[in-house]
């Protein structure tokens, strides 16, 4: 198996370095970044939409613009935190649950309640992408017609692009941009893929699991993984004929949670029963969320969670960038196809094929050094 000439690899690395240096030199005079930053500070929805689109791009130059914009946004956020303390931080709420749990209806009514209380609400809703075409319906706004017309609310649907964590790779950046635009409450709605929805936990201050009543064996849904990550369990659709079933599910979850170690030593996961249709229990649910935030702030865990979020954010990008750099190495795509073929035909085990590809990549870098 022939290796790529070190000279070719060096030229590629040199071009990449020159491109990065050019981007860094152009940062201070980038009009797009300056315009978007001013628009965010003024709370302009159009600038927020454009900024989120910018951070979602994979174009090299636009990625550098996005990086500069996020750096400025982070600097402003740190300045506000130094001046006001934890009160300057928004409230990030992650919402997960199985399909049919009523997440969109809940967000619609919950968001309207918050805006009526003077809050500005941003909703980052992730739609599943097609495994064949890569497309998404992005129909969350159609399921939240009233909230989408509210001047104090912003809804941004994004495709999952195959991320099983229930969120996109750029969700962290979108949260930061929403906060920079003045939204004090950010709700992240995931695609509802069950126990694989752990990524959102590393992005939010409070993770809420919303479940419907009358789903058969209720405790079957009590999976240790996702329950251990939950700060709040919400039994939705507690109205009409479903009230008895909702009560039964609430009691069973309360009993079952006694056997699961709490996520925080300062907070015991409550189970709250509400109706998104009649809005019964929504004000009390918000009070419970406020109590959670106050408890976390008093214990110092609120700020610690923010630090943990940034660390997880770093590793998310590091893993993605390492894979992109690995696949983008000259000649590596052909070697990957050969390894895939050998693994599929059973010539080598997938583990050995992966080790061989990694060894080849390391050898190329050593020879190019």
Automatic annotation (TrEMBL):
It comes from the Eukaryota. InterPro entries: GTPase_ArgK, P-loop_NTPase. GO terms for cellular component: cytoplasm. One of its GO terms (molecular function) is GTPase activity. Keywords: GTP-binding, Hydrolase, Nucleotide-binding. GTPase, binds and hydrolyzes GTP. Involved in intracellular vitamin B12 metabolism, mediates the transport of cobalamin (Cbl) into mitochondria for the final steps of adenosylcobalamin (AdoCbl) synthesis. Functions as a G-protein chaperone that assists AdoCbl cofactor delivery from MMAB to the methylmalonyl-CoA mutase (MMUT). Plays a dual role as both a protectase and a reactivase for MMUT. Protects MMUT from progressive inactivation by oxidation by decreasing the rate of the formation of the oxidized inactive cofactor hydroxocobalamin (OH2Cbl). Homodimer. Interacts with MMUT (the apoenzyme form); the interaction is GTP dependent. This is Methylmalonic aciduria type A, mitochondrial. The gene is Mmaa.
């Amino acid at each position: 198996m022939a290796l790529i000439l070190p000279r070719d690899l060096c030229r590629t690395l040199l071009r990449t370095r020159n491109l990065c240096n050019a981007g860094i030199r152009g940062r201070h005079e980038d009009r797009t970044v300056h315009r978007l930053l001013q628009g965010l500070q003024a709370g302009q929805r159009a600038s927020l939409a454009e900024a989120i689109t910018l951070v979602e791009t994979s174009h090299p130059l636009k990625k550098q613009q996005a990086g500069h914009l996020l750096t400025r946004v982070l600097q402003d956020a740190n300045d506000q935190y130094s001046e006001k303390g934890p009160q300057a931080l928004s409230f990030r709420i992650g919402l997960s649950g199985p399909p049919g749990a009523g997440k969109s209806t809940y967000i619609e009514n919950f968001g309207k309640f918050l805006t009526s209380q003077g809050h500005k609400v941003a909703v980052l809703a992730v739609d599943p992408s097609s495994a064949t075409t890569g497309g998404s319906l992005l129909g969350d706004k159609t399921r939240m017609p009233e909230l989408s017309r509210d001047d104090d609310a912003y809804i941004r649907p994004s495709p999952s692009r195959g991320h099983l964590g229930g969120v996109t790779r750029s969700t962290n950046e979108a949260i930061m941009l929403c906060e920079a635009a003045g939204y004090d409450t950010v709700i992240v709605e995931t695609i509802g893929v069950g126990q694989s929805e752990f990524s959102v936990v590393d992005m939010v201050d409070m993770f809420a699991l919303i479940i419907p009543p009358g789903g058969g064996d209720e405790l079957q849904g009590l999976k240790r993984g996702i329950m251990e990550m939950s700060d709040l369990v919400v039994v939705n659709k507690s109205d009409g004929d479903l009230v008895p079933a909702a009560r039964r599910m609430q009691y069973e979850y309360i009993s079952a949670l006694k056997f699961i170690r709490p996520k925080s030593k300062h907070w015991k996961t409550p189970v709250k029963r509400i109706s998104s249709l009649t809005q019964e229990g929504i004000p009390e649910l918000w009070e419970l969320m406020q109590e959670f935030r106050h408890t976390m702030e008093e214990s110092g865990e609120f700020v610690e969670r923010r630090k943990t979020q940034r660390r997880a954010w770093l590793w998310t990008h590091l893993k993605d960038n390492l894979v992109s750099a690995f696949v983008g190495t000259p000649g590596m795509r052909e070697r990957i196809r050969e390894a895939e073929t050998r693994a599929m035909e059973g010539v080598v085990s997938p583990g050995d094929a992966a080790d061989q590809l990694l060894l080849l990549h390391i050898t190329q870098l050593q020879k190019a050094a």
